[in-house]
Amino acid sequence: MLLSARIVRHNFKFNLVAMGGTFDVLHRGHRKLLRQAFSIGKTVMIGVTSESFARSLHKPHKVDSYVVRKMELENLLSDWNLLRRARIVELSDKCGPSVRDPRIKAIVVSKRTLRTAYAINRRRRATGLTPLVIVPIDLILAEDTRPISSTRIRQGRIDREGRLVAPRA
C-alpha cells in the first residue's frame, strides 16, 4: 500500500531577510514583524540588541538580559516551528550585518524604525552593495489606540496583547 505524502512548496520572495530589535517582553507587535519576515524570507536573520547597546538606548525601564531575550525569541520561534529558518545574531549597533552582508536582500521594519532602514541602504550603496527591499509594517495599536510597546508593558499600562491593564487599587 502506498502512502501519499502531502508536499508543501513555498515560493519565498527572498532567500535571506533581516530584521532587528531589542525584543524585550515579546508582544503582539513583535509577532507581527516576525510573521511578515518569515512569510517573505526563506531564512530570517534576526538581530537582537546586545546588553550594552540596549543600555545605550536609555529605555525608561529595565531590559532583560540578552540571554533571556534571545531565549524567549527562540522559544516563540520553536513553538511556531520556525527556529530552523532563523539566524539570531547579536546587534551592537542599529545596522548590524545588514550593511555588509550581500546575501541579505530585504529588511522588515516597523514604521517607527523606517529611518534606520534608509540609513542601512545609504551605507550599502556607499560600499557598492545593492540596497535592501524595505518592508515597513504598521505599528500594532493597543486598546487605547496607542502603539503597543515593551515600555508600556513594563510600565504596567497594557499587556503583551495590547489590552489595557486595570490600575491597581
Structure description:
Helix 1 links the parallel strand 1 and strand 2. This protein has one domain: Rossmann fold. Helices cover 30% and strands 20% of the residues. The chain contains five helices and five strands. The radius of gyration is 18 Å and the shape is globular. It has 169 residues and is of the alpha/beta class. Strands 3-2-1-4-5 form a five-stranded parallel β-sheet, with helices on both faces. The N and C termini lie far apart (67 Å).
Write the layout of secondary structure elements.
Elements: E1 14-21, H1 28-40, E2 41-49, H2 51-56, H3 66-79, E3 86-91, E4 106-110, H4 114-126, E5 133-137, H5 150-154
Parallel strand pairs: 1-2, 1-4, 2-3, 4-5
Radius of gyration equals 18 Å
Strand content: 15-25%
- Measured as a percent range, the helix fraction is 25-40%
Overall tally of structural domains: 1
Q: Give the strand order, joined by hyphens, for the main sheet.
A: 3-2-1-4-5
**Can you tell me the CATH topology?**
Rossmann fold
Level-1 CATH class name: Alpha Beta
Output the structural class: alpha/beta
Q: From N to C, what is the helix and strand string?
A: EHEHHEEHEH
- The strand count comes to 5
> The biggest beta sheet, please?
5 strands, parallel
- What is the subunit arrangement here? single chain
Tell me, briefly, the overall form. globular
